[in-house]
Structure formats: structure tokens, C-alpha cells
């Protein structure tokens, strides 16, 4: 596509990385962002002498594109995107674009929950084994920028449904699908199947020599597999041993059977706690054994992994109350996992930008485990409509400081204060990291 005009919509991490790679490959590049760029991103574009605009899109400039790389956060329903689509301009994701310029092996992970933890764990295993491996996608440094500036032989890519929407020719050598539960339904016309269809694009273009690892106990996934009949070689994992499972649990151990070799490890030795993390460890272990990582190396990596910030992260214990930061729980199912892992009475902080949430999934756990609820959001009306009368104490908070102060007053010795919001953060915070950072800071001031 040399000499062609590539327009990049969105000047975040992935957009700037795409611009750098596109320029390196001799394309005419124009980046456009509707908001204000971060100072470091602006400085990078100026340093590379890449043409860009911020604070709004110049329609005629955008519509001159031969191809558009769109930020995952921009829905197709915006007026500009409607015009782009009407013109028949091809729109792809950063993943599709960067994938054209590397021969590295792709290990791709998606799922409604656990994908950041699993991606980071797989990367940790492979890096510890001495492989030249990059971590990218929905996490860390832009995939495109790493392709431009690094020489990795493997990439571990965490892929969201939004990123997968823009994938066409890209192929995962190893695809991992952890689970599918309702999320981002506001983006998918409140149709779960549309979201499912986006997730299942992870197996697109796979051949029999490629691997597809998935959770066999997920009814949505198993239904889709029966329907789609993947070409890739399948490696399901689940709680119980069956004739088809490559990974399972058995008498307090995780077991992986691949290539006529059995690996096992006591669950209590895993660094990550909770049954959901056993599944994340099983999926990671199957990837490792497919890539011929030794048993000893895998065992060490599963035991010494440090976890992911903002995911069930222990912040501090204040006056006998433990404070846990699970700000990354941006959907109801993530909160369900967090509540399920609580061993004490819990003061739960939740709320934010609702994505079409159905709170019935956590209702029973809230009734049995929550001492109090604190709603942290600009508009808590939907939370009140569902939870009022189901828990003795409910408070509203308009800032993190207010929420943590309320939790401090409501919690009793031996309790846990859990920030697990169920919602996106954009009403009061820049992103879930900002929300988690503010929680940490407020807790440490108590």
C-alpha cells in the first residue's frame, strides 16, 4: 500500500504507534483526534514530523483516505464513521495493520474477563523462558509501535471485542478464548450475539496447524463452536477431566495433557488465587506446553507471577479492614468473580458509566456478602432502582475521597472494602487506572 493515504482516527497509544509504523513503511499519514492529545503523544508526532490535528476531525481530510485505522473506542454509529462507511473506505484496527508487517508468532487472548491477567501471565512465562516476546494489544505499549521499533519473535496480544471487529486478514497462531458474558452491550445494540460474533473473530483465518484454546464449561462458547466448527486444532480446558480436555483440575491439582505428556501442579502453589484464576493458569499452561516450555520453567512462572495492577490488588489493611482495588472490573461478571472470592463481610464500592448492565448476576452474592454498598457515579439511579431495599446500608459518593471515607465509616474490623465497580470509569475518571490510583491514594491517607 506504499504511497497510499492512511488516516488514523484517535491519537492514543495505538493511534500514535500506528502512525509511526505507517510512516516507516512509506505511507502518507494523517492522524485526527476529536479531543486533545496527551502531551507526550503530541511531542512524538511532532518529532516524527507526522501530520496531525486535534480538537476535532476535518471531514474532507478524513474522507481522502485510502484506508482508515480507527481507535477501538470509536463506534461506527458516529456521523463521521457513517460517511466513511458510505464512501466504502476500508476501516481496520491497529492489530490488522501492524500484523501485515511482522512474521512473529501471534498468541492472542480474548474473553469478557481475565484476559489482562492471562495475557500478562503468558508473557511472563515465555519471557522467563528466554523467548523474545512482546506484550501488546489492549495492554501496554502499542503493537504497531513495537513492530516498528522492536524485533520480537513472538507477540502476546490481549484483544478486546472492539479490536477484533477490525480484523480481516490477521491470524492468531494460538487463540485463547477465556469466557463470554454480557459486556459492552451498549455498543452492540443490546444484542449479545453481536458481541459474541466479535469475540469469535479470534479464530478467523486459523488453519489446522493453529491452536484454539477455550473454556469448555462456557455454554455460549460451546454453542458457537458447534455452529462454527473451527478449523484449528482445539485444546479445551475445564474444571473436570473429560476425553477432550487438554487442561483440568483433579484432587487439588491443575493437570495439562498435551503431546502425550502430562504436567501437573498443586493449586495451592499457584501465585493467583480463586477458581477463575485456576482457569487463567490452565489456559496459560496449555499455551506454554504447546510452545515446549519445560515443566520446571512453567512451574516456577506459575508460582512467582505477581499479578496485574487494579485486579483484586491488596492495597492496605487499616484498623483491621482490608482494602482491595479491583478497578479493572468494568463489567458485572468481573465483580461477580471478585465477590465470590471474598471470605469476609464486604463493603462494596460500585458504579460509573453503565454499559447496559444486568445486576441480577451479582444480586445473591451482594445479599449474602455485602454489609453496605457505596454508589460512586455521576448518575446512580439505575443502581438504586435495582439494589434499594436489598442491603441495609447504601450511600452515594461523587468522588473517590467521599467513597473511601464512607467505606471507612461503614466497615467493621475483619471486613473487606472492595472497589469492584461493574462499570466503565468515564463519568468521574480518565480511565479505570486513574480510578484505581485514586482509590489507592485515598486508602493510604486514612
Offer a few descriptive terms.
single chain, 3 domains, UDP-N-acetylmuramoyl-L-alanine:D-glutamate ligase, 17 helices, six-stranded mixed β-sheet, 22% strand, Protein-Tyrosine Phosphatase, Chain A, Rossmann fold, 20 strands, alpha/beta, six-stranded parallel β-sheet, 446 residues
Structural notes for this entry:
- The protein is α/β, with parallel strands linked by helices.
- It folds into 3 domains: 88 residues, Rossmann fold (3-Layer(aba) Sandwich), CATH 3.40.50; 206 residues, UDP-N-acetylmuramoyl-L-alanine:D-glutamate ligase (3-Layer(aba) Sandwich); 132 residues, Protein-Tyrosine Phosphatase, Chain A (Alpha-Beta Complex).
- Helices cover 36% and strands 22% of the residues.
- The strands form 4 sheets. Strands 7-8-6-9-10-11 form a 6-stranded parallel sheet, covered by helices on one side.
- Helix 2 links the parallel strand 2 and strand 3.
- Helix 6 crosses helix 11, helix 6 packs across helix 12 and helix 13 packs parallel to helix 14.
Amino acid at each position: 500500500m506504499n504511497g497510499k493515504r492512511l488516516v488514523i482516527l484517535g491519537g492514543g497509544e495505538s493511534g500514535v504507534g500506528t502512525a509511526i509504523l505507517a510512516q516507516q513503511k512509506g505511507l502518507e499519514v494523517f492522524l485526527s483526534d476529536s479531543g486533545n492529545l496527551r502531551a507526550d503523544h503530541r511531542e512524538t508526532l511532532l518529532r516524527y514530523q507526522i501530520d496531525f490535528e486535534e480538537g476535532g476531525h476535518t471531514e474532507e481530510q478524513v474522507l481522502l483516505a485510502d484506508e482508515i485505522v480507527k481507535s477501538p473506542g470509536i463506534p461506527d454509529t458516529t456521523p463521521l464513521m457513517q460517511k466513511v462507511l458510505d464512501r466504502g473506505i476500508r476501516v481496520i484496527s491497529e492489530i490488522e495493520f501492524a500484523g501485515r508487517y511482522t512474521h512473529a508468532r501471534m498468541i492472542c487472548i480474548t474473553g469478557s474477563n481475565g484476559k489482562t491477567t492471562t495475557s500478562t501471565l503468558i508473557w511472563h512465562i515465555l519471557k522467563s523462558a528466554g523467548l523474545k516476546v512482546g506484550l501488546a494489544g489492549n495492554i501496554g505499549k502499542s503493537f504497531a509501535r513495537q513492530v516498528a521499533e522492536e524485533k520480537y519473535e513472538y507477540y502476546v496480544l490481549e484483544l478486546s471485542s472492539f479490536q477484533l471487529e477490525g480484523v480481516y486478514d490477521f491470524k492468531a497462531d494460538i487463540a485463547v478464548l477465556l469466557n463470554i458474558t454480557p459486556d459492552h452491550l451498549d455498543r452492540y445494540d443490546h444484542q449479545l450475539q453481536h458481541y459474541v460474533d466479535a469475540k469469535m473473530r479470534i479464530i478467523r483465518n486459523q488453519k489446522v496447524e493453529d491452536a484454539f484454546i477455550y473454556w469448555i464449561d462456557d455454554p455460549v462458547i460451546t454453542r458457537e463452536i458447534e455452529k462454527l466448527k473451527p478449523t484449528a486444532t482445539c485444546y479445551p480446558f475445564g474444571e473436570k477431566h473429560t476425553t477432550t480436555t487438554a487442561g483440568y483440575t483433579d484432587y487439588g491439582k491443575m493437570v495439562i495433557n498435551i503431546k502425550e505428556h502430562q504436567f501437573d501442579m498443586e493449586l495451592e502453589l499457584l501465585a493467583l488465587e480463586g477458581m477463575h484464576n485456576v482457569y487463567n493458569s490452565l489456559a496459560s499452561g496449555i499455551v506454554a506446553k504447546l510452545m515446549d516450555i519445560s515443566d520446571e520453567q512453567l512451574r516456577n512462572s506459575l508460582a512467582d507471577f505477581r499479578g496485574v495492577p487494579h485486579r483484586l490488588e491488596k492495597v492496605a489493611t487499616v484498623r483491621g479492614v482490608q482494602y482491595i482495588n479491583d478497578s479493572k472490573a468494568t463489567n458485572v461478571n468481573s465483580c461477580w468473580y471478585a465477590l465470590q472470592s471474598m471470605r469476609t463481610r464486604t463493603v462494596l464500592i460500585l458504579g460509573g458509566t453503565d454499559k447496559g448492565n444486568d445486576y441480577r448476576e451479582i444480586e445473591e452474592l451482594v445479599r449474602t456478602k455485602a454489609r453496605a454498598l457505596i454508589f460512586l457515579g455521576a448518575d446512580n439511579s439505575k443502581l438504586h432502582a435495582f439494589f434499594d431495599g436489598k442491603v441495609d446500608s447504601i450511600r452515594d459518593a461523587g468522588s473517590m475521597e467521599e467513597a473511601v471515607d464512607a467505606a471507612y465509616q461503614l466497615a467493621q474490623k475483619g471486613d473487606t472494602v472492595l472497589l469492584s465497580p461493574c462499570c466503565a470509569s468515564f463519568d468521574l475518571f480518565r480511565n479505570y487506572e486513574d480510578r484505581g490510583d485514586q482509590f489507592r491514594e485515598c486508602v493510604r491517607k486514612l
